[in-house]
Design brief:
By secondary structure, the chain is α+β, with helices and mostly antiparallel strands. It is 13% helix and 21% strand. Strands 2-1-5-3-4 form a 5-stranded mixed sheet.
Length: 106
């Protein structure tokens, strides 16, 4: 599966999703800057991404825990999600996300 990730500079990267990995893990493995300070345990909001509106309905709804973490994130939008909570799967082939402010060093 392919994941299209726009980094903090506006550059789009096409990454190969890996089964049983999260989008956060794929982004970090590719060397794209993302703080992801808690390592994917949904204990911070430093893997905040904006999901392309065409994809928001295709994702599982966020958990209460994820919603709570997003409450503390910067520049939250209707399409905000935590990349650590999006599991790679063939159904998400072509997923487009943008790394949000606060998820990288400024």
């Amino acid at each position: 599966m392919k994941i299209h990730v726009t980094d903090k500079h506006g550059k789009e990267h096409v990454l190969e999703g890996i089964a049983d990995w999260t989008v956060m893990e794929v982004i970090r493995e590719a060397g794209i800057e993302m703080l992801a300070q808690c390592g994917g345990s949904c204990a911070c909001a430093t893997c905040h991404v904006y999901v392309d509106p065409a994809w928001t309905e295709k994702l599982s709804p966020p958990s209460e825990e994820e919603i709570g973490m997003l409450d503390g994130a910067f520049d939250v939008k209707d399409t905000s999600r935590l990349a650590c909570q999006i599991a790679c799967s063939p159904a998400l082939d072509g997923l487009k996300v943008t790394v949000a402010p606060g998820s990288y060093e400024e």
